[in-house]
UniProtKB/TrEMBL annotation:
The gene is coaE. It is an enzyme of class 2 (transferase). This is Dephospho-CoA kinase. PANTHER family: BIFUNCTIONAL COENZYME A SYNTHASE-RELATED, DEPHOSPHO-COA KINASE-RELATED. CDD domains: DPCK (cd02022).
Length: 206
């Protein structure tokens, strides 16, 4: 099994790269999706978040009001750290459970938005960083996600710098390109990952 950590700044196109890797045959473990699951209604994770931040973070239907919680924690580093101390261990445990169910010869891609920020690179055999120019990120966040420019810039500034992400990368995928070019690049990366996962056996000396 080859464990791949996939990351990239917000708006860099990491989700598109993960989708293309799945098309190629990767087993995907999506940290963002798991982070939502572990604080779903009636879970111990949600109970812990409410205990820490109060009933105000609940929506009327009893689910987590993510925008409300975000407005609380992103304005206060201590509160963000407290939230992370609740959610990250739950995400890590669930990720390991899912990884254990993958075939022994699989290429398992962990899609982890905050891989750089949380110092998680050592957990993976290979780190793949999806990279895009900050202007490209900003345009995508405003045009495709409907963020205001100020909000988009704030979200980008809250993450690791582009240089910090590239420092931990074993492989960089440039996503300042049209989709056909990105697809070809991902296919090349996939071929490399498969070679790493299944190295040719050394021939025994005669």
């Amino acid at each position: 099994m080859l464990k791949v950590g996939l990351t990239g700044g917000i708006g860099a196109g990491k989700s598109e790269v993960s989708r293309l890797l799945v098309e190629c045959g990767a087993v995907l473990i999506d940290a963002d999706r798991i982070a939502r699951e572990v604080v779903a209604p009636h879970t111990p994770g949600l109970a812990a978040v409410v205990d820490a931040f109060g009933d105000a973070v609940l929506a009327p239907d009893g689910s987590l009001d993510r925008p409300r919680l975000g407005s609380i924690v992103f304005a206060d580093p201590e509160k963000l750290a407290r939230l992370n101390s609740i959610v990250h261990p739950l995400v890590g445990a669930r990720s390991r459970e899912l990884e254990a169910t993958a075939p022994e010869d699989a290429v398992v891609v962990h899609d982890v938005p905050l891989l750089t920020e949380n110092g998680l690179a050592p957990l993976y055999d290979i780190v793949v960083v999806v990279d895009a120019d900050p202007d490209t990120q900003l345009d995508r966040l405003v045009r495709l996600r409907g963020m205001t420019e100020d909000d988009a810039r704030a979200r980008m500034a809250a993450q690791a710098t582009r240089d910090k992400r590239r420092e931990i990368a074993d492989i960089v995928i440039d996503n300042d390109v049209p989709l056909p070019d990105l697809r070809r690049r991902v296919q090349d990366v996939w071929a490399d990952l498969v070679r790493r996962a299944h190295p040719p056996h050394e021939t025994a000396p005669e």
